[in-house]
Amino acid sequence: MSSLPDAKLLPEADSSVLQIWGGHPLRGHIKVSGAKNSALVLMAGALLCSEDCRIRNVPLLADVERMGQVLSALGVSLERNGDILDINARDFSTSKAPYELVTQLRASFFAIGAILARLGVAQMPLPGGCAIGARPVDLHVRGLQAMGAEVQIEHGICNAHVLSSDGRLKGAKIYLDSPSVGATETLMMAATLADGETILDNAAREPEVVDLANFCNSMGAKIQGAGTSTITIQGVRKLHSTDYTVIPDRIEAGTFLVAGAITRSDLLLSPVVPEHLLPVIFKLQEMGVPIVEEAPNSLRILPADTLKAADIETLPHPGFPTDMQAPFMALLAVAEGDSLINETVFENRLRHASELNRLGADIRVKGNIAFVRGVPLLSGAPVLGSDLRAAAALVVAGLAASGKTTIKGLQFLDRGYDRLDLKLQQVGAKIQRLGETGTDAELIENGNNSASVST
Ligand code: EPZ
């Protein structure tokens, strides 16, 4: 079994490019890493506990490193060994998170709930908007206010402190105007150490929310109903140590399924939780792509005869995930017929359409709707990823395009995909990462092997 090199061997993301020679079917087994959007919030959740927290299956991502830097700045001790992260927040005493780090990593804002619950005060920089939308935090703030915190936003900082004399938040009944993943996670963490019962109504139901609840419960929290629209949390005074394993990344797995579909490949993915991927699996099957659950915790994708057009509307879970919209746009670009994509979760998440058109796609965008007219073949070109999933869509398109595709903007890709190019190489993709000079890069030319990937 060949193993993947660890992160420090990779050249600086923002100076390197990916080169892909498309049109080659992939074959073999790909190991799916732990979920980014779970690992990040579990790291924040460890702030709730003053004992040792061991988190396993932590992906190797720039965002995870950045969250680690935020926690270290708060006085938390962290140690990483491979995909195991040992965290101890016993000496965590600083309530002020570093501006430059939080503004670069939106998920670190969700730690405000745990900081407030543990210390009774928090100064958290606003995460600010990003390429895909304004990303306000009003639902987080309103929920914390309902639990008895005074929250003021000044100079880009969210200053919060608990009003009650015992310094504890109070249980409350909270209705979320929209089922925000981040707001649900922030408030679930805050309520874990609050005095009394909290009910979160219209809560997010994403698998990562459930993973956070399970993680907190493994430390002695009392959270029920995660995965449904109503979550009930009985506050406790103290949590204890835990040893917890992060769920597999459903978006990474979904991206590999789309890569397999667009290249007419035979790929086996594991570990996966098929239930987490139902909207993705059904949409691929609707397009004519065979997918089978060959073994527990694994999915096999087989070559499709034809790719049929399909319509997509992104929605909160269990609807079609917005994080899979971009890779699917690349796939629909080479499907037979016309498809409609309606992005309802984020207001500015169709920017990849113009880069896909550079590769020969025929996509028109109007507001949050993309009209995709399938073309027989894409052709390679230099393109730029504008955000994490947009960059992944360009990798998927490059795998199918004739000739060479060169992708810039890898700083986005490496934030959310654990060594995507190396995993694809090992199942036969003609892909390489080049440093700025085009010479000092890791040039790995892959023969036609079908070795499986292990980390
Ligand atoms: C999480 O972001 C994920 N990030 C996103 O993944 C994912 O796209 C998103 O959930 C939806 O599934 C992490 O978990 C770190 P939201 P989050 O709060 O929590 C609006 C990726 O590619 N809103 O559910 O920030 C918001 O503007 C990333 O891995 C408010 O209006 O998403 C958006 O339109 C991208 N007020 C909608 O709700 C609030 O207070 C959904 O946002 C909060 C959110």
Describe the structure.
- It is a single chain.
- The chain has 455 residues and is an alpha/beta fold.
- Helices cover 29% and strands 23% of the residues.
- It contains 14 helices and 25 strands.
- The strands form seven sheets. The chain has a four-stranded mixed β-sheet. The protein has a four-stranded mixed β-sheet with strand order 3-15-17-16. The protein has a four-stranded mixed β-sheet with strand order 5-6-4-14, with helices on one face.
- A hairpin with a 2-residue loop joins strand 5 and strand 6.
- Helix 1 packs parallel to helix 7, helix 6 runs parallel beside helix 7 and helix 10 packs parallel to helix 12.
- The longest helix is centred in the middle third of the chain and has 13 residues.
- It is elongated.
- It starts with a strand and ends with a strand.
- The structure holds ligand EPZ.
- The site of ligand EPZ has 27 residues, from helix 1, helix 5, helix 6 and helix 12.
